[in-house]
Design a protein that fits this description.
This protein is mainly alpha-helical. Among the domains are: 174 residues, no CATH class; 120 residues, no CATH class; 120 residues; 84 residues, no CATH class; 127 residues, Leucine-rich Repeat Variant (Alpha Horseshoe). It contains 57 helices and 6 strands. The strands form 3 sheets. A two-stranded antiparallel sheet has the order 1-2. A two-stranded antiparallel sheet has the order 3-4. The protein is extended and about 120 Å long.
């Protein structure tokens, strides 16, 4: 492969540096051809030939061409075989060393030559034997010298190549260069110690070591760390900063070779530097590193020497905590994060549990305790989340170690209103309370509610529940829902219930005031709201539920506290759901065991099994404990639901019904059957009585009828809740009961629930539709109820129809029930449902439409689908536009679904398109919208030869609507015309278009040509970018680092290109920065914004046209350029845009497409005056820029009149046009 393929593309190009490289390359190639024995120019030049010729040329070249030759050599060296470079290294190194020594100030030559030398070194064998040769070490020494060069580009190149060599040696396990780098660094340290002033050389060395230290061997790293530690308290801020950066990179790099002793010394050195006070008040630029380095080092030390890490832990924690007191939010965040990492790595829960009283652990805990003092108030937003994480990490062993912190946290919450506010960044009392509550909630999760209350009790001798600790009740409620430890119903029975009873008893005492009684009742309700949270993670259902079951029933029935009913029901639901979830987990595990399922990820399987320890025996006991009281809870819940109106009290009724359904799943089948029959009996009695009362028609009986309907609704809701757990006989009973309601739309809610019951039957009892007699009966009932279906029941009816169609598909064809009754009777209904406002209902209707088509095709593969399409086509003859539009939409969906796979539809498509096109001349817009959609489908489906015969009808029909004013189809019809033009050609379509409308086709053609041209240009640019990116390492990297002249030329070329692009862009009103190549812009200057930032609308002027250099005429008057006036007028671009808009408007007027023009009786367009007399245009000078004074008139002025006509919606465009000129221009001048 030719290494110069990319370079040759730029031969003769505009870039001078690349052109010069091509000239030199051509000369080198000529030399190679001449050296060949037979002068062969056909055989490609090998990399070795290039290498030999370039080395010869570099050795003998003059100074003017060395840089190009060296750059070409650096491009070919990666392709040269390693054996050649190893054998010729001495000569290569000698030549390149000479070039580097003679380069002087030529930075480009230094970079190219250093790249060649480094590539030659990379080709050498990475072994201690090979790198013991003096010429290799001298060459590497030369690269080290370049890595410390004062010129940034040269230094960057030196860093890159030395790091590449070190990375190669580290990967191969060769440590030959580590000692050499260490001796080089020691020499620099020694020389700087003698001089005492050479801080710049030290800074450059440390910056190099920042990259090199992670790649060096252990012994060298230890010695260099000891040497760098001396500069942690250096007087030079720059030296101190780069030293911290180097040590931070070393401690963070996982591949760095740090011994335990080196890590220990590193931690001590950083801590000593902080204690010496040389850092800038702990908030300086090195504070982040001062926090991070000892933390990272200590974490690594803990993995190799836990005892040494424990010894340093108190000092590290204390030092990190001291940084949390700063005002810098970034330092606070880093310090708390580092503190959490250190404690998790060194102070594990096992250590805290067994050695919590040791001196070093006590010192750590004391430092953590100090974080809750007022000194750290500014950092509490980071401190208390840290405390919460520590509680979650240590879990139950947090006690007694973290008890003082928890107590302090609660005390701070109680005194939040009295805490002093900091002058800067102070938190409100509410914010602080949330932080304290966050930490307390984490403690509840970690310790459990019982242990928490032993540390922070909430009871009070006189108040029952302490007013100061009442804030803990919401904390308990939220924390117990998410705790991983599990909760105990025994805690609720032993602790919470006695307090709730005491509050309720206290509220009934005669000596209590009404206000106190209300407060005690509220407190009792708050305590009861803990019940759902406790039940969500209950672990002792089998042992403690029986202790509170009767109390729960009494609480639900207590009319003094109606809120308790919902709280208890939510808790009972949580208990039932928990047993169900555990039962499903057991079932999944049993299925895996029985099927011998192979688990690919062993860790994932173990995690799934250990998510919660499942005990099938205990699960059975839990379910039995709940089922034991189902006989008591079911009648109670039934009575509660009967008291409500499910249509009004929806939320409360749903909670009760969910609880009822849960306990029905646990109850015995006999109990459920008996209860369900009673519900059916009450339902029939209520509906029968309601009909009798309505038949009497007495006005006094209206309330009675309403009450009876409410009872019937409640009984139907109860039946739905029990339905999933009843037997087939009761399902048949329910079907017989609800069947009459399908034909009765007098009670819409009841009819909706009847359809919902049918859906529930189909979902939970699949056998119901498997019987042929039952299926036929339901089909006839659905067909008969077509005209009596109310609007609220349509969605459920569609779901029933979907079940019915699926059941018919599963049944073999018998008496043609589907073909004769169901589909013909329901197809119209389904078509209308596709026009519903509800999106889900529309999608369900479309799915049902396709299912019906598939059913008929399965019954009759030859003609079934076409018969169904004939049914849909019948909708085109409907009287209402709504139905005709629905028919076209359904036809489009059927063609879309089956058009490509069913040949019968493909054959009928021309006739279908011809039929639908007849609707194009209707006036109903919804029909036109549907026809346009079908037209697009026909263009895509029909082949070109079959579609051609419909072109006149399509085009003439579209042109009727494309010129219609204020219609919504202009864009849609335009898209169809574009598709036709692409398929048949612009000339063919234009021939079918009337003469007055052919301008539209020409416009479409021109627009398409512009788009294609733009796409091709973008594709070419993208290809160039990909090619440049692909070859960047081989070529562009060196081109980017070419000499200054080349950079300037490239920058100039880019600047010219940018100016060309800017000519085609509209000026924006944003702000830009005025730059000066000869001056450095100081962004820290307070006046930088005033001096250097200006509006982009004033752009385009050079610096020599500034406001300070105005010319003067001979009589001494200032000559003000007209550019400002041009800008005030909107600029030339704005004038051009106005002209273009006028041309487009006139063109559209000739085509008959202009909607905005108003015409008089004679057909001539009325011209609107551009000047309304208020914009100040009459004062504009005609022969110069600026304004003029008119004799006998006021000073030049402009104002915006308040015209009420412009507030009308139809005049919106005119208002924007009138005001945009003044408002926009003035805004741009600010």
């Amino acid at each position: 492969m030719d290494p110069f393929t990319e370079l040759r593309k730029h031969a003769g190009g505009a870039h001078p540096q690349k052109a010069k490289l091509n000239v030199v390359l051509a000369a080198i190639c000529d030399v190679i051809y001449e050296r060949r024995a037979n002068g062969d120019r056909q055989a490609p030049i090998s990399p070795t030939e290039y290498f030999a010729a370039l080395m010869t040329a570099l050795d003998a070249a003059s100074d003017s061409h060395r840089q190009e030759i060296a750059q070409l050599l650096s491009m070919v060296l990666p392709e040269v075989p390693e054996a050649v470079l190893r054998g010729k290294f001495a000569a290569v190194a000698k030549c390149l060393t000479t070039v580097l020594q003679e380069a002087g100030d030529d930075a480009a030559l230094l970079r190219s030559a250093s790249a060649c030398l480094a590539l030659a070194l990379l080709a050498q064998e990475p072994s201690a034997t090979a790198w013991a040769r003096p010429e290799l070490l001298r060459s590497f020494q030369l690269l080290l010298t370049l890595a410390m060069d004062s010129r940034p580009k040269v230094r960057k190149a030196g860093h890159k190549w030395t790091m590449d060599i070190l990375e190669l040696h580290a990967a191969k396990g060769c440590d030959a260069l580590s000692t050499h780098i260490a001796s080089f660094a020691e020499n620099v340290f020694a020389s700087s110690k003698k001089d005492g002033k050479d801080d710049q050389r030290l800074v450059l060395l440390v910056a190099f070591l920042k990259l090199a230290l992670p790649l060096l061997q252990r012994k060298v790293v230890a010695s260099l760390v000891a040497a760098l530690a001396k500069f942690l308290d250096a007087n030079s801020k720059t030296l101190r900063l780069v030293t911290y950066e180097a040590l931070d990179a070393l401690s963070a790099a996982p591949e760095s070779q740090l011994t335990a002793d080196a890590l220990r010394k590193l931690v001590i050195a950083v801590l000593d530097a902080q204690s010496s006070g040389s850092l800038e008040a702990q908030g300086g630029p090195v504070a982040i590193y001062a926090v991070r380095i000892p933390s990272q080092a200590l974490v690594r030390l803990a993995t190799v020497n836990a005892e040494a890490a424990r010894e340093l832990l108190p000092r590290v924690v204390s030092a990190v905590c001291s940084h949390i007191a700063t005002d810098n939010d970034r330092i606070q965040r880093q310090a708390t994060r580092s503190l959490l990492t250190v404690l998790k790595a060194t102070l594990t829960p096992e250590v805290l549990e067994t050695e919590g009283t040791f001196e070093d652990v006590a010192r750590v805990l004391a430092s953590l305790q100090s974080l809750t003092s007022l000194r750290f108030q500014g950092a509490w937003s980071h401190v208390f989340p840290l405390i919460g994480e520590l509680f979650r990490f240590y879990g139950p062993v947090s006690r007694p170690a973290l008890e003082p912190i928890l107590v302090t946290c609660c005390e701070l919450h109680e005194a939040a209103d009295q805490l002093p506010q900091q002058q800067q960044g102070g938190k409100s009392a509410q914010t602080l309370s949330q932080l304290f509550a966050l930490a307390a909630g984490a403690a509840v999760e970690a310790l459990g509610p019982r242990a928490f209350l032993e540390i922070v009790p909430i009871d009070h001798p006189t108040e029952i529940v302490s007013e100061q600790r009442a804030w803990l009740l919401p904390v308990f409620r939220d924390a117990l829902r998410v705790t991983q430890r599990g909760c105990e119903l025994g805690f609720f029975a032993d602790v919470v219930l006695p307090m709730a009873r005491a509050c309720e008893a206290g509220a009934r005492e005669a000596s209590v005031t009404p206000l106190q009684a209300k407060k005690l009742q509220t407190r009792a309700i708050q305590l009861w709201t803990l019940f759902p949270s406790v039940c969500a993670r209950a672990v002792d259902i089998d042992t403690h539920f029986k202790k509170i079951a009767k109390v729960l029933a009494s609480a639900m029935a207590d009319k003094r506290y109606p809120e308790l009913r919902l709280a208890v029901c939510q808790g009972l639901q949580a208990l039932v759901k928990r047993t169900r979830a555990l039962q499903k987990s057991v079932a999944r595990r049993y299925q895996r065991e029985t099927e011998d399922a192979e688990v690919e990820d062993a860790e994932e399987a173990e995690e799934d099994d250990n998510e919660e320890q499942l005990d099938e025996t205990k699960l059975a006991r839990d379910r039995a404990a709940l089922a034991k009281y189902s006989g008591r809870y079911l009648p109670l819940l039934l009575s509660f639901v009967e008291e409500l109106d499910p249509e009004k009290d929806t939320e409360r009724a749903q909670v009760l019904l969910d609880t009822l359904e849960g306990f029905a799943s646990l109850a015995e089948a006999e109990l459920i059957s008996t209860t369900f029959k009673k519900v059916m009996q009450k339902l029939l009695e209520a509906t029968t009585e309601a009909k009798r009362v309505e038949a009497e028609g007495a006005g006094s009986n209206s309330k009675r009828a309403t009450k009876l309907r409410q009872i019937s609704h409640a009984q139907m809701a109860l039946a739905l809740a029990l339905l999933a757990h009843v037997d087939d006989a009761n399902v048949a009973l329910l079907y017989r009961v609800i069947k009459p309601y399908l034909l009765d739309d007098a009670d819409a809610p009841m009819q909706k629930r009847s359809y919902a019951a049918l859906v529930a039957i189909c979902d939970s009892h699949p056998k119901f539709l498997s019987e042929e007699s039952q299926l036929q009966d339901l089909t006839r009932a659905i067909c008969e109820s077509l005209l009596t279906c109310s609007v609220p029941a349509k969605k459920m009816r569609l779901r029933v129809l979907a079940h019915l169609i699926r059941a018919l598909q599963a049944q073999p064809a018998t008496d043609g029930l589907a073909e004769k009754e169901l589909v013909p009777n329901l197809v119209g209904e389904i078509m209308l449902c596709t026009k519903e406002a509800n999106g889900k209902a529309r999608e369900a209707a479309f799915e049902l439409l396709v299912a019906m088509a598939m059913l008929l095709r399965a019954r009759d593969p030859q003609n079934g689908l076409m018969e169904f399409i004939q049914m849909v086509l019948g909708g085109l003859a409907a009287r209402t536009p709504h139905m005709r539009s629905a028919a076209v939409i359904c036809l489009s969906r059927l063609v879309f679904e089956f058009g490509r796979e069913d040949p019968s539809i493909a054959q009928a498509m021309p006739l279908l398109l011809k039929t639908v096109l007849m609707l194009l001349h209707e006036k109903a817009r919804e029909v036109i919208k549907s026809v346009i959609g079908f037209m697009k489908l026909g263009i895509a489906v029909l082949p070109k030869d079959q579609l051609e015969q419909f072109l006149p009808d399509i085009i003439n029909g579209l042109l009727v609507w494309i010129g219609e004013s204020k219609n919504r189809f202009r864009a849609k019809t335009r898209i169809i015309l574009i598709k036709l033009c692409r398929k048949f050609g612009y000339e063919h379509v234009a021939a079918l278009v009337p003469e007055e409308d052919r301008a539209l086709i020409r416009h479409i053609k021109k627009t398409k040509e512009r788009e294609d041209k733009k796409k091709s240009e973008l594709a070419a640019e993208a290809a160039e970018r990909r090619a440049a990116k692909k070859n960047r390492d081989a070529f562009e990297e060196f081109m980017a680092d070419s000499d200054d002249e080349g950079d300037d030329d490239e920058a100039a070329a880019m600047q010219v290109l940018k100016r060309k692009k800017d000519l085609h862009k509209k000026h924006k009103g944003g702000k830009v920065i005025r730059e000066d190549e000869d001056d450095i812009m100081d962004f820290l200057d307070d006046n930088a914004a005033v001096k250097n930032i200006f509006s982009s609308q004033r752009g385009g002027h050079d610096d020599d046209e500034s406001d300070d250099e105005l010319q003067m005429s001979k009589d001494g008057r200032l000559i003000i350029p007209g550019g400002e006036d041009d800008d005030m007028d909107g600029g030339s671009d704005s004038d051009d845009e106005d002209k273009i808009k006028q041309d487009v408007a006139s063109q559209l007027q000739r085509m008959g497409l202009n909607n905005n023009g108003k015409h008089d009786k004679g057909g001539r367009a009325k011209r609107k005056r551009d000047d309304d007399g208020s914009s100040g245009r009459e004062y504009r000078a005609k022969k110069a820029g600026g304004d003029i004074k008119k004799k006998g008139k006021l000073e030049p002025y402009a104002y915006i009149p308040l015209d009420p006509k412009l507030m009308a919606k139809r005049n919106k465009r005119e208002a924007v046009t009138r005001y945009g000129g003044s408002v926009g221009k003035r805004r741009g001048k600010k």
